[in-house]
Amino acid sequence: MDQSTAAEWAEIGRQTAEHQPRVADSVLAMLRSLADITDGFATDQLTHCLQTATLAEKAGADDEVVVASLCHDIGKAISVPNHGAIAAEILRPYVRPDVAWMLQVHQDFQGKHYYAHFGADPNKRDAFVDHPAYALTAEFTDEWDQIAFDPDAETYPLEHFEARLREVFSRARY
């Protein structure tokens, strides 16, 4: 790299931009892989993500929040314990900072509904009460995420969200 030229970096930049659609392709493949993960829930993780995004859309959430809702558990394709951090880092360049933060901390917010079963503090979210994205994250976890494990719930298919996902991942904005 020390010996590279501006022309070489211009070509690298051009090719990177040309191949940007592969990011959405990779995200869609990771989402599809969640259909194989149930881990004791009543639905597989892809269905859960689709239901969460369906609820977000029906509530009038903007495109970045709907796509983040769709992708919020994408990290489970790699690791359950830090799946929120993985999702946040995948989406961070493409969504507003408040949406990336929502993904980063969503498990501790959702913990209100189950942490007590594991001896953990169900009020862990209270540490973030002054954060500007607190209300968005609470709405996401309480109104969409934690109820989206119903095999009979309305669930829009992945294809319904694909164009919106491709638009969000079309270029880094942040």
For this entry, give a set of tags.
mainly alpha; single chain; 8 helices; Hypothetical protein af1432; 174 residues
Largest sheet: none
Give start-end ranges of low-pLDDT stretches. none
Mean pLDDT comes to 96
What is the CATH third-level topology name?
A: Hypothetical protein af1432
Q: Secondary-structure element order, as H and E?
A: HHHHHHHH
List the helices and strands and how they pair.
Elements: H1 6-18, H2 21-33, H3 45-58, H4 63-71, H5 83-91, H6 97-110, H7 134-145, H8 158-168
Quick summary:
The chain is mainly α. The protein contains eight helices and no strands.
What do these coordinates show?
The structure is a single chain. The protein has 174 residues and is mainly alpha-helical. The protein has one domain (21-168): Hypothetical protein af1432. The chain contains 8 helices and no strands. The chain has helices at 6-18, 21-33, 45-58, 63-71, 83-91, 97-110, 134-145, 158-168. Helix 3 (45-58) packs antiparallel against helix 4 and helix 4 crosses helix 8. The two termini are 25 Å apart. The relative contact order is 0.17.
